[in-house]
Amino acid sequence: MGAARTAARKATLYGFKSCDMVRKAMKWLDEHQVAYEFVDYRREALDPKVVDDWFARAGWENVFNRNSTTFKELPESEKTGITPAKARRMILAETNLIKRPLLDTGSDILLGFKAETWSKALGK
Question: Which one of 19, 74, 82, 121 is the catalytic residue?
Answer without folding.
Answer: 19
